[in-house]
Structure formats: C-alpha cells, structure tokens
Design goal:
alpha/beta; Rossmann fold; binds nicotinamide-adenine-dinucleotide; seven-stranded parallel β-sheet; 9 helices; about 280 residues
Length: about 280
C-alpha cells in the first residue's frame, strides 16, 4: 500500500460494524455520530433502552445505518447478548467501544462500600465483560482486510486514571482508581488478543457532558461554591484554552477505527487540551 493510498483510506469506515456502550448521550453518542458519518454501521447500546433507540433513530434520520440496544454492562450475560444481537443483525462485529461509565464526587474519607461498588461495577467489571464478549466474537471472524486485525476494541479511561496529582485527587479517588484499572485491562487484553485484535484506551480531559454537570454539582455542594464554579475553574487550567467537546474525543475514535491505527495496541492516548501533558 502506498502512502497516498493510506491517506485516501484514513477516516473512511465504509460498512464497518461498530458497537458503542453508553452511547445514548455524551461522548458515546458523539462517537456514534462521527463514525456513522465516516461510513460505519452503528449499534448504540445503553442501560436506558428508550434513549438508545432514540439515539439510533437520530442517526437513521441523518441517513445512517444504526440500531439501538439495551445493555447493563455490569451483567456478563447481557454483554454477551448484546454482541449476539449485533452479529444476528449485521453479521459480525468490527469494533467495540467500551464507553459506558459513571462517576461520583465524594471526599476520600467519606467514601463507603455503597459508593465504591457501583463505580467499580460499571467502570471496571463492565469494561472487562464488554471486552470479553467482543473479543470472543472477533476471534471467530475473518480479518478486516488483508494484513489487518480481525477487530478493534477501544476503552474509555480518563486523565483521571493517568496522573496522580491535581485538585480532583481528594474528591474522586474511587473513580480515578477505576479508570486506572481500565488502562490495566486494556493492556492485558491487547497482549492476550494480539495479533487478532487491537485494544487501546482513550483518556479524555474535561468534556462538556452530563457527567461533568454531575461532577460540578457534587463538587460545588461539597465546597459550597456556586453552581458552575468547579467547571469554570478546571477549564481555566486547560492550556488549549477551552473545554473539550464530545466531538474532540470522537475524532480520536475515528482514527483508532481507521487502518492508520492498525499497528497500535495496548496504548492509552490522552486527548485533554494539554491539561496533563503526561
Ligand atoms: N465527561 C468527561 O469529562 C469524561 C472525561 C474522561 C473520561 N470520561 C469517560 O467517558 C465515558 C463517557 O462519559 P460521558 O461524559 O459521555 O458520560 P454520560 O454520563 O454523559 O453518559 C454515560 C452513558 O453511559 C450509560 N450507562 C451508565 N451505566 C451504564 C451501564 N451499567 N450499562 C450501560 N450503559 C450505562 C448512561 O445511561 C449514559 O448514556 C465514561 O466512561 C467516562 O468515565 C468522561
């Protein structure tokens, strides 16, 4: 393949079958929109079945091929059923994006078992079971093309899982630990499933979604700040001078889906406006 051909293929995902968990809104939905615009067929899977179907209907209204599915990623059987459903509908699964995640803001010393468990259930166990189910299917498939992997898996970690310091360390330690675990799972999976499947993690920064609205609210409540102050203070520290949009994250997912990323596996890629530069 010549360099010119590589350039031509990059970003064109015609016919690629992509599933994204937690894609009824936020970063997941932005990735669905972007990958669909690049030609992929999309399965939007979310714990909220109605909103998953509504999100898929939005993609279809824009002329794309999309289905909505219900999944609670905490349940191993549901992850397997999700993949079976996609294979029944589309014939195979080329890319799985393990995006579903939850957050809670609470001081380190106040965190109890009932705070810890749901964070680890969704963010860690949920990613693990989603990777398991996707990899089981992908290993049975033919390659995406000559010399290409059989499938691609992308996980959503965070800068919260990448660096130790920072003003949020005292208030989201369980979330940060869960996102560090996602990086570890990504590396174990990349090693286990090479050369058939590439597995990489995306580590976003401060993305303007409902998740950050919740962080702002809970953090502001703890500090007795006015609503919006936590968000504005954090965004002011971003070297590139603005908050991250879900679309910023989607561009990296489109790259990872493309042949240009076929030689990359086990990596955790920061996309955070220079917030950590780590
Ligand atoms: N927003 C940020 O600043 C930011 C930064 C770094 C990483 N992330 C990560 O990116 C991912 C998406 O974040 P977002 O900001 O779009 O969040 P969001 O809260 O806007 O959306 C999360 C989606 O996941 C779904 N979901 C929750 N639990 C689920 C479960 N058990 N099974 C299936 N679906 C479930 C929700 O219904 C929702 O649609 C998360 O993993 C998050 O940790 C977000």
């Amino acid at each position: 393949m010549t360099h010119a051909q590589t350039q031509q293929i990059a970003g064109r995902l015609d016919g690629m079958i992509v599933a994204i968990t937690g894609a009824a809104q936020g970063i997941g939905f932005a990735m669905a929109q972007r990958l669909a615009a690049d030609g992929a067929r999309i399965a939007i899977a979310d714990i909220d079945a109605d909103r998953a179907e509504q999100a898929a209907a939005r993609l279809r209204a824009d002329g794309h091929d999309a289905i909505g599915l219900s999944v609670n990623v905490v349940e191993r059987e549901q992850c397997e059923a999700m993949v079976s459903h996609i294979v029944e509908h589309y014939g195979r699964l080329d890319m799985m994006v393990c995006n579903a995640g939850v957050v809670q803001v609470k001081r380190f010393q106040d965190i109890e078992a009932e705070d810890w468990d749901p964070i680890f259930a969704v963010n860690v166990k949920g990613v693990f079971f989603t990777v398991q189910a996707a990899a089981k299917q992908m290993q049975k498939q033919t390659a995406l093309g000559d010399g290409r992997p059989k499938g691609k898996i992308v996980t959503l970690s965070s800068i919260a899982g990448r660096y130790g310091a920072g003003p949020m360390a005292p208030i989201i330690p369980h979330y940060r630990a869960s996102k560090a675990a996602v990086i570890s799972i990504t590396q174990s999976a990349a090693y286990t499933f090479a050369p058939d499947i590439t597995v990489n993690a995306i580590c976003p920064g401060l993305v303007d979604t409902d998740m950050w609205k919740k962080i702002d609210q809970q953090w502001s409540d703890i500090e007795q700040w006015e609503s919006g102050q936590a968000w504005r203070t954090r965004v002011a520290a971003v070297p590139l001078g603005r908050a991250q949009t879900p679309g910023d994250v989607a561009g990296l997912a489109a790259f990872l889906a493309s042949p240009d990323a076929d030689y990359m596996t086990g990596q955790s890629l920061n996309i955070e406006g220079g917030l950590t530069m780590s």
